[in-house]
Design brief:
The complex is a heterodimer. By secondary structure, chain A is of the alpha/beta class. Chain A has four helices and five strands; from the N terminus they run βαβαβαββα. In chain A, 38% of the residues lie in helices and 20% in strands. The chains are: A alpha/beta, B alpha+beta.
Chain lengths: 117, 787
Amino acid sequence: MKKILVADDEMSIRLLYSEELKEEGYEVYLAANGREALDIVAKVPLDLVILDIKMPEMDGIEALRQIKERQPDLPVLLSTAYGEYRQDFATWASDEYLVKSSDLDDLKAAVKRYLKD
Amino acid sequence: MATERIAFLTQMVEVFTSTVSFGERLNNLVHLLARYLKVDLALYFGLDKARETLILNLSSQGPVPPHLRVEFPLGQGLVGEVAKTRKFKTVQRGQPGVLAANQALEKLHPAFVTLAGFPVADDNFFYGVLLFADRLERHFTSTERQNTHLANLMLAGTLRQALLQEEAKKRIAELSVLFEVGKALSSTVELDVLLERVVTTTAKVISARGAALQIIDGVTKEVRISSQYGEIPLSCPSPTAILATPASPGELPFLQGQEANAAGQIHYFLAVPLTFKGQLQGTICVYDKFAANGGYLSFDPENRQLLYTMAGLIVNAIENALTFKQVETLAEKNERMVRNLTVLQVISRALLTTVQEERLQEIILQGLTLEQGLGFDRAVVLLVDEANQTLKGIKGALRSPELKNVPLFEALVSPLAAEMKMEDWQIPLRSDQGPLALTVLQKRPYHIQGIAVEALSRALPADFIASEFFVVPLMAKDRTTGVIMVDNGASGRPLEEEPLHVLQMFSTHAGLVVENAHLYSTIEANNRELLLIRERMLESDRLAALSSLASGMAHEIRNPLVSIGGFARRIAKMVDEKSPLRGYVEVIQEEVTRLEKLLREILDFTGENLSFYGDHDLNRLLEDTLLLVQRDLDAYKIKVVKDFSDLPRLHCDDRQIKQVFYNLFQNALQAMSQGGVLNIRTYTLEREDGLYEAAAITDTGGGIPLEVLHNIFNPFFSTKDYGTGLGLAIAQRIVSRHYGQVEVNNELGKGVTFIVSLPVAKYCLVKDPGHGAAQASTLKAPKGGGR
């Protein structure tokens, strides 16, 4: 079973994403900020990470940078309420940049692309 | 006897103490002696000035008529003998030789028998002889002789007194003459008038028939008569001839003599040299002294003395006049200089009234040509065209005659009356291109005349050529920015040295002013650009503020909307299709979707993808961006070589494209911090998907090391040796948003070429490239950059 980490400070979003992804047959780990996300990345052999950008303590961009430094091959998707971070070159290191939507089809399609096999 | 003697002495004292004139006293004495000695006749013979002849002065029988003029040379006759021996002597007619020797006396006393001569002398001077004649044979007693001798002593005293008095009178007269001359000399400083007066006064004082002043010309060494008075019967002795005359030691040189003129008449002359600061300067010469009887006399030592005095005065006068003339010349020169400086000052004041290059050129031309300015007939300004290495005609002018009486400042700022057309004047800046090019190249003024004018005529239109020109360079710091050329061809006045100096002073100032105006206009252009940029920044700041407010709110809403909508969808999936709940959930779902769409639109509008697309000229964008790095280019001494082609308009966000070029220039600058060449080429190229325009930016910074080359577009990649890396990533991203490409052509050891190619406007009409990124499959964008 593929392991996915979802990091978002909004509890409701974490719940929605985990419910939807579990339904798709993935094992879902949850983190409320970047630091928690890095802890899980360090302990669990993950297959994919979904990061929110605006989070307390450590934001998604810093988390992305550190994850890519340690595990360049681990796919990281950014899922954010903000479109403008797309201008920030630091986000270009992510494998996908997704603006949050209540319709999770795009997100699920992207996840599927990276976890095809 | 004693009473007789006392009576005689008393009478004698009375005669000598009487207040009557000297001549009268002498007369009375002669009478008194004649009566006392009881002789027929008493005569007084005075020794003349030459001390050679004794001349009858007085007779006891009254005044001596001119035809009874009697004189004895020294030693001749009794009179001459007494004068010579200075001893009393008496002779009788019968004695041998007496009659023969004294025959002249028969005119006065035809029957004289006894003659007695008494010398009139004091201790050191002999004056004359008193002679007594009687028809009887007479002998004089010792008392008579003693009394007569006493009378003679007193007579000698009186004569001495008279001589001294005469001498004093003469001295006073001389002094007053000198005073008059001095007055004349100080009354005027015109040398010619002064010399005339000196010569006239000299002749009059000496009572000469004529006088002449000769001066040696300082340059030609020719001797010429500079002033004269009266008649000049003989030619003047030359100054050197006078100096050649042997003079006795302690005496000043002079030349004196007599000569016969062409008609055989004898004339006298006296000449003394004029020496000034030890140098022989000329001669002053007098001719023929008037005698009392209407004849001419030779000159005496007193005349010579006076002539020396006059010569001294003349030398002083000449010296004074020369000094004065020098002072005057100097003052005149100063006055001209002050005038010139005043003119220059007014012109520079006028030049301060504007910074427009064209107005400045007009003021400069007015200043050069106005009568009340520098006064040249015509003036032209040519400026150096650095790009084409030519000297180009800018503007020329003739004098504006209607401004003749207008005050200088006002006239300077008036428009030019007759402007010359000279746009087609183009002179290559090579040393074989005549004097104008040389003026620029050698940075020095030229006075073009003769053969140089011929060289000039090859470069300029024939109708412009005059006989001579002044050309001066316009200098700004150490560069020649142009030349000013002037001439006086219209009036034919010659060009003098002094105006050339003034012109040089003028051109130094004018050069700086023109350069300042040029710099000012550049600064002004830069300022306009900065202002524009600032305005845009302000505009984008306003939009950004609005956008951040709106987007802040929108984002706050988006998260809960996602949750609401997401869970609504989950509920919808779980609720049976027939349940009434299904409809309610679908309403929630639809409303959320509608709100999400609205949010997207708001965020789009407020700036998430805010851009300034328009049609722009790529060359212009490159030029604008170059201005931003101009300072660094100058500081690093980087030469920019532009090779721009005509390009179609490009549809793009000009700010972003400028950012691309800015980043690429920054990279090039950092690679060439020790100097180099920045080559910028623009061109169009046809590709499969259409027409592109490209800018190739090449530096000479040595190229990018191979080990880092593949990383340069990586946003996380940075090396201190070659740029920041971030700049290239951003450039890459912007270009890809414009559906363009950035290519690198690395020549290790030489430099790097970055080629930015962008599709031409008509192929790129999508407003927001962000939404169309999926179509841009041909892009060489970095991972994630194109979404």
